[in-house]
Amino acid sequence: MSPPSAGTGTLFERIWNDHVIEQGGADDALLHVDLNFLHEGSFLAFAALRKEGRSVRSPQRHFAVADHYVPTLGRERGIAGITDPEVRGLIDLLESNAAWAGIDHAGIDDARQGIVHVIGPELGLTHPGMVITCGDSHTSTHGAMGAFAFGMGASQVKQVLATQCLWQRRPKTLRVTLDGTLGAGVGAKDVILALIGKIGAAGATGHVIEYAGSAMRAMSMEGRLTVCNMSIEAGARAGMVAPDDVTFDYLHGRPFAPKAQHWDDAVAMWRTLSSRADARFDREVSLAAADIAPMVTWGTNPGQALPIDARVPDPATANPEARRGIEAALAYMGLTPGQALDGLPVDRVFIGSCTNSRIEDLRAAAAVLRGRKARIPAFVSPGSTAIKREAESEGLDRVFTEAGVEWRASGCSMCVGTNGDLLRAGERSASTSNRNFEGRQGRGARTHLVSPAMAAAAAVTGTLTDVRRLLAGARA
Amino acid sequence: MQAFTTLTAVAVPLDMANINTDMLVPARFLRKPRDERYGSYLFHDLRHDEQGRLRDSFPLNEACYAQAQIIVAGANFGCGSSRESAVYVLMDSGFRCVIAPSFGDIFFGNALQNGLLPVVLPEAQCAALRAWLEANPGAQITADLESQQVSVPGGERYAFSLDPVRRERLLRGMDEIGLTLSRLPAIEAFEARYHAQRPWLAR
Ligand code: SF4
Prior knowledge:
The structure holds two protein chains of two kinds.
Chain A: H1 11-19, E1 20-25, E2 28-32, E3 35-38, H2 43-51, E4 62-65, H3 85-101, E5 104-106, H4 116-122, E6 131-134, E7 148-151, H5 154-163, E8 165-169, E9 172-179, H6 188-199, E10 207-212, H7 214-217, H8 221-229, E11 238-240, H9 245-251, H10 260-270, E12 283-288, E13 295-297, E14 305-307, H11 320-333, E15 348-351, H12 359-369, E16 378-380, H13 385-394, H14 396-402, E17 406-407, E18 428-431, E19 446-449, H15 452-461, H16 467-475
Parallel strand pairs in A: 3-4, 3-6, 4-5, 6-7, 9-10, 9-12, 10-11, 15-16, 15-18, 16-17, 18-19
Antiparallel strand pairs in A: 1-2, 2-8, 13-14
Chain B: E1 6-13, H1 21-24, H2 44-47, E2 70-72, H3 85-92, E3 97-100, H4 105-114, E4 117-120, H5 123-135, E5 140-144, E6 149-151, E7 157-159, H6 164-172, H7 176-181, H8 184-197
Parallel strand pairs in B: 1-2, 2-3, 3-4
Antiparallel strand pairs in B: 1-5, 5-6, 6-7
């Protein structure tokens, strides 16, 4: 069967073809899954699997970690510190399901614990060229290392547990080319918010995005992980970046990375993973890095994002289809058309989530907070227990606490609030997470998505603030 | 999973784009077991006010839609998180079909896994269907997967298409695990070859 012409020669096609066990139809294939991640939410899949009397076919190709429900306070008490029996039950259930299946598991007090999409790369579990799945939409994160990684629901988690493969419909390909140099105070989060702002929250539906261009090549592993993480917020199945020395340097020496001769052989294979010069994508979008400003969302989907120096849009001047969406978003967010975003008072700041909780994110926030004080309640939840330790060894925890910012333990925390870290109704946050949906951070809560540096700036001033002013101040 | 062939049922128009899975089922319910209360979590925070009272303004609360099994919505239905609970709450409150101009990819896949039919129709046709339903509150329409048509009594027919592989599985209510495991020899042969080329993956 000849492949469709668009997509030919792309990195995506190469990884897809490497994993096809059987073609099911023109666009449909049974794919081998190299690695599947599990978290507390996997209980539904395990329950269904056990009810059907099935077993886990390749337990060594799964890794389980507690992240969605772990508390970020009182963690020194471990599981005993959790008072809510339902929450405790879910964390226990993950452990007992993993033990039943023989799957490696990082529980609440394991040194390897962290947000699933942070620890995969961090432990060296995520490799270039892999097909990676997880019952979580932000699985797209792992694509930053040159993998094809996507989220799925409980039925498919069950299938991967039972068979280690999955029927998939082949997505289309979209290349996003980011050329040039990002300005001071502008980072990976601003890049992805600018992209989603440009193409919309459904702008990449049905597509896999490959991020390319000089600014992507120059971007750190942490930055690439942030960009790929939010690909799903543009509707994309997955995001990916071709692996290069940045990837290999990041991966080398990590606990599950190949060792010795295996490392050399693996890198030799991984170096062949890139789109050919004549690759054909179904769609192309380009962004000029130099044009991107620090971004902030004003509405209730991540496509409703603008540069910090912009004003809240006016539904009256929008096209009729967009009008009601804008009106509803402004009503929920408590904003008026034409209002300046810079200077908008904020109640709380959250720095964390699988989007922005890696060491580089914490350094960026600390650089703004160093020697300053937070005016509003703010807290940091590092992406993993290992990142927490690393930040502490660099003294970042002291920078935060001296600024009056709480330094907590690692987990999904206020990104989704299932552990109880929630805003109150009407409260407005500057948050480094990935979803500004109605009610995401608590019923009636109003979320503005920003970068770690912008979140720190909001903490210092108590308002949405162009961080470039503070950075200029720090240099003066 | 439940097969889907054809369904004639009350349809409710929801004139909203970007209905995300957090709206379909707020995250605080994800810890709940799938028991007889599960369907009541559907659109919970849109259907109820802060005091837990039903909001009159939300279409699903209107008496004429109490028996609805079809939703006709705006673009990008089911975007956001991968929670399959978003499909479970729909199914457990009686819905078997959602018609929209586009869907979140993961939701679309999850729907098919459970026998909930996602129908993609152009924006203008969805708008026309919603307008017809607004004018005929509580009326029934038909979604037929055999003929791949949505039809309004005595009126318009709208053709849709689902890719042949998925259509076949849904028509027959086929279990994908059974289908996959029937390919076990091919899977094992693939894995032996794949891992021989990548010895570093041995664990
Ligand atoms: S941090 Fe947020 S987006 Fe990431 S896995 Fe956890 S809940 Fe999902």
